[in-house]
Amino acid sequence: MNDFSDDWVEISLGEAFSVKRGDSSLTKSAYRSTGTLAFSASGPDGFVEECQNDGAGIVVSSVGAQCGKIFKASGKWTAINNTISITEKTSKFSIEYLYYLLERQDILLPEGGAQPFISQKEVVGATLYFPPLPEQKKIAEILSGVDKQITNKTKEVEKHQFLISGILNQLMTSGTTNRMVVETEAGRVPENWIVGKVEDFFELGRGRVISIPYIKENPGPYPVFSSQSKNNGEMGRMNSYDFDGDYFTWTTDGAYAGSVFARSGKFNCTNVCGTGRAKSSSDADTRFAAYFLQRVAKRHVSYVGNPKLMNNVFAAIPFALPPIGEQREIAKIIDAQKSGAALLERQIASLSNLKSSIASDLLSGRKRVSV
Can you give the pTM of this predicted structure? Predict the structure, then answer.
């Protein structure tokens, strides 16, 4: 028994669509600079000489870390080793609708342990429910519309990130005006910049051991930052703080060693974070320092064993300062770009949640669309 209306049909994926393995004779070693778009288990990531499909389709990653992830294909394309391709067999069922149906993570489930996989048999035998074709197309159109908004905003985020990178590369090598530059340990900098080491301009310290249980036992408004880059490194909030003012922090240990963040206000950080603040606010701007160090800190990470960037190494990083007004102007320009990107990322998250909610209602038949 199911909760679908009588006009929905239950059918196996293999009955409604053509399913075949990707070409096992083709691997990434066959990739070339131009040709037909190729889908590997990682997605559309290369070109091959042979075109095996022309039109809409779906490629399933069938082995490895991304096993179960699906990719939309169109135009001329080829699925290579470790994939399964799905194409239309009959006009009764929409490949676009199927794509959104398979995006749900409870349909094609990987098997195996260390090397997860999805078999062609599982794909062929997957039981699916389809509304009438006009409704399939309308649902796919609605979800595709949300996807287009997400794609457009993602491209805008990438533009902001590209601009930030360009600003850092240009302003921190040639300054805000055309003028002579000099080669220093800190790189090519304008001749009127002051060059030294991080420790010459900033007071350096380190966070303390703060556990998640401790944070939960002492909830409050003050953020606790740790090693992760996700969520800007925030791991929770508690009722006291260790730092107050303008600082930068950097990750000292682990996969994100060398990640640098600008901080302000009242906050805490754990013992895998170093901290820095300007010795003189009339000489050094902390946000400028954070952006400068984001460009160079990772170069000084030691990858012998667990990645590390300890205080003494960080303190000795060559550093350059323009006049304070220019520091603040550079930081202001980058802040504006970062704010724009952050706003778009919040909008993308909202759209993703909206899409998930719409898909849950429409693909389950709980809500119907008029066609």
Answer: 0.78
Cα 31 to chain centroid distance, Å, stands at: 25
356's tokens: 């998930």
Cα Dmax for the chain: 78
189 and 181 Cβ atoms separated by less than 8 Å? yes
The Cβ of residue 196 has, within 10 Å, a number of other Cβ atoms equal to: 14
Write out the two tokens for 230.
């996700």
Instruction: Provide the token pair at 184.
Output: 């220093």
Ranges of H-type helices in 211-252: 212-217
Residues 309 and 258 sit within 8 Å (Cβ to Cβ): yes
The arithmetic mean of pLDDT across residues 120-148, rounded, is 95
| pLDDT tens digits, one per residue of 84-111 | 999 999 999 999 999 999 998 688 888 8
Q: Is 86 helix (H, G, I), strand (E, B) or coil?
A: strand
pLDDT tens-digit map of 26-47: 999 999 999 999 999 999 999 9
Return the residue matching tokens 């049909």. Answer: 9
The Cβ of residue 314 has, within 10 Å, a number of other Cβ atoms equal to 23
pLDDT of residue 88: 95
Secondary structure in 3-state letters for 22-58? CECCCCHHHCECCCEEEEECCEEEEEECCCCEECCEE
Alpha-carbon distance of 61 to 333, in angstroms, equals 41
pLDDT in tens, 267-314: 999 999 999 999 998 999 999 999 989 888 999 999 988 899 989 999
Pairwise CA distance, residues 170 & 158, whole Å: 18
State the distance between the two ends of the chain, measured CA to CA, in whole angstroms.
Answer: 27
258 backbone dihedrals φ, ψ, rounded to 5°: 95, -5
